[in-house]
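>> received
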Amino acid sequence: MSSESDTMATNGLSGYAGWLVGGALGGAIGAVAFGIVMWLLDPNVLSAAIPAIYGLEPVGPVGWGIHVAHGIGLGIIFGLLITRPLFLGILRSDAETDALARTGIVFRTIAAGFVFGLVVWTVLPLLVLPVWMDTIGGSGGANALTSTVAGSLFGHLLFGTVLGAVFVATVDLHDRTAETPF
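>> returned
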């Protein structure tokens, strides 16, 4: 038992649920970082717009809670993806260019988080959210939210970068073999 805990302390989370915990933790911390940026730029997005997506009244920290829950869910998806054989193989592969060959799995995982944040920004706020808002609340709300969300590229990239950094800091990817997720 002590050798197992020593190994985990030395190498980070490993085993069956390591990616799950690392993804959830990274997603929560990334969502808080993104939320701070949103709050500084336009506090109404967190307090009113996010609860409005679900038809909720802007009461207390409901928007923050929903935003962090979104981050946890997306972090778990990132953890699941990044530990599958295809993506893990890409992170570990030898690069053809000198610049990429000098980078390690830490930098590549953080870069994967950055790209994940870009994909999330492209898919969710720009494609899914307008359709969702048209379905539940009319087109006026969708256009207003889309223009607000279009300025959130920095926040989504920050989210992904923090997610990747926390994930690689908590989950050992060096000697990891891909596991079945469930």
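>> Residues 1-12, 178-182 have pLDDT under 50 and may be disordered.
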